[in-house]
Amino acid sequence: QVQLVESGGGLVQAGGSLRLSCQASGSIFSINAMVWFRQAPGKQRALVAQAGSGGATIYADSVKGRFTITRVNAENTVYLLMNSLKPEGTAVYYCAARQYAWSSFGSWGQGTQVTVSS
Fold this sequence. Notes:
Elements: E1 4-7, E2 10-13, E3 18-24, E4 33-39, E5 46-52, E6 57-59, E7 67-72, E8 77-82, E9 91-98, E10 105-108, E11 112-117
Parallel strand pairs: 2-11
Antiparallel strand pairs: 1-3, 3-8, 4-5, 4-9, 5-6, 7-8, 9-10, 9-11
């Protein structure tokens, strides 16, 4: 399993942008899915965006059109560009990797805090 390290979180005003990075300790080329989750205070962890090994992407309805996930296999890195941020986007953002389509998410980062002020 790869080790994952997130970075790029911080405090931003509503309407602003942030780019999160998830650096893997090894190759992500063959990993079925690289995913960003978020967990807001008092809420369950929820999927934000997913990038598959074949290039397909999935987004939560709440972020479609505002967030972009980019998987750069050559860098072993996955980015999450977040535009037009809203206060409800305040959460800890986690990167995760699922090795195969039938497996669970076996690798998780430590999370990075994103706070959006109104």
